[in-house]
What we know:
The chain contains three helices and eight strands, in the order H-H-H-E-E-E-E-E-E-E-E. The chain is α+β, with helices and mostly antiparallel strands.
Amino acid sequence: MGRTADQPQKRNTGPRKTGPNAVTFSGPLERDSQVTEDDMLLDDGIASDPPRSNTTAIRRTNLPIPRPPTAGLPGSPVPVRRTGGQSKQLIAPQAPPIHIQHPARNITKPQAAAAKKKVHWLLPVGIGMIAMLVLWEVGSLVLAWGLARYDDLRYGNPRTYQVDAVVGHGGDSPLHPSHFIAVNLNRQAIVVEFPAGAQSGASSYVVPYYILGPGGDLTPITLEFRDVTADGKVDMIIHIHLQSQDQTFVFVNAGTKFRAPNAKDIIHL
């Protein structure tokens, strides 16, 4: 391939000797070298460019565009350099904080049941029994106090009980029954009889034992009349109402008055 018309022609000034054994190249060799160089330039696309001028100016049209300073941007390894013309130090904008959310861990909180010690089953049972005993004691005291107040209203102090009955003494009848008064006088049960309601033939009967126990002087006494010896006569039964139990004592009807029982009497209560 021949060279282009615009390309400057090389001048051959003749053989140059650079040393005692200088090598002289002939014209055809230089021609072939020039042709080979031109072919390579055409293949690379450089030969189509306009011819270069013999100046030292450098064309800057194809230079890469300068990038703006990347100092201060996140991930930039180049720090900001301070130039001589800067009067104030440039403050790089701070990047927004990056919140990294860690995966939730399986953190087991101590259970409240594990923190508490296990309670033996006897503990609540014992507490319940103690509470029941306390309630029973308190209830007993309250009941005793209530009964005492009731006896005060009904029997008075000392405890006194009155009743009318027909027992066949002193010509008593349903129209004129005998009157009986039972008194707890200093822990002693005493019964006073008024035959047919008359004070002239009054007689008294004393139970041959004392009323023992707490509150014995406040124990009420009542009377009951019925035949317990199966002799056809009405007998007198004295009831002593203690807090724990009732005690009874029987006076047998002798026809004109009552007497204490003996071994021959068969009593059926």
